[in-house]
Amino acid sequence: MLLTPMRYKSYIWPHNPAVYSITYQRQVAAHKVPFGRYCMQDLGLTCRVMRGAGEFAGADAYEEFKRLASVFYGGGPGLLIHPLWQIANAYFTALKLEQEPLPDYVRYSFEFRERFDGYSEQLTAAGSAAGAASPLAPRRHTVAGGETLWSIAGRYGVALEELLSANPGIKNPNLIGVGEEVALP
Predict the structure, then answer these.
(1) What is the pLDDT of residue 1?
(2) Distance between CA atoms of 125 and 1, rounded to whole angstroms?
(3) Rounded-to-5 percentages of helix, strand, coil across the chain
(4) Tens of pLDDT along 139-150?
(5) What does the pLDDT read at residue 132?
(6) Segments of the chain with pLDDT less than 70
(7) Helix, strand or coil for residue 173?
């Protein structure tokens, strides 16, 4: 299966990294109580951590690694678009050379941490009036930079499944473009 290349901010991988993983984690606190017992407290979900490893090979392998490193040094969050994962607004938190680089071969690993800016989206999903769609709400939405179908669904207080069924032309919910029109249910 031919996959689209992975992208982060302005950088497009020449070929997808060989190894990917996503860690979903829930923070739980254990509290000691008398007589050898304990109680657990659910502190909620933590950010998703996306890790991977790959290699650059060929005459410009080290130059390609330096281009990736310059994106890392840029700082701040950016849009991480992976051919299989949900698109995420993420921080590029680690880039590591796995061996001494050669002019024609570089092996590396990386880490991204998802930026969670969905607190207001969770409130609207729970039914707050601020995010609920009003009768005067627009019937179409134009996709802006950094938006995902998930953020659009949260903004208008609709379920992602409803948004997808209102847009049968969207075959891959992870791939929407800036300027694309999305019909609202």
Answers:
(1) 53
(2) 36
(3) 20, 35, 45
(4) 888 888 878 888
(5) 44
(6) 1-2, 117-138
(7) coil
pTM of the complete model: 0.59
DSSP 166: T
Residue 8 carries which side chain, given as an amino acid letter? Answer: Y
Burial bucket for residue 168 (CB in 10 Å: 0-12, 13-18, 19+): exposed
CB within 8 Å of 88: residues ≥ 6 apart:
48, 50, 79, 80, 112, 114, 115
> Distance between CA 127 and CA 85 in Å, rounded?
28
Give the type of residue at 100. E
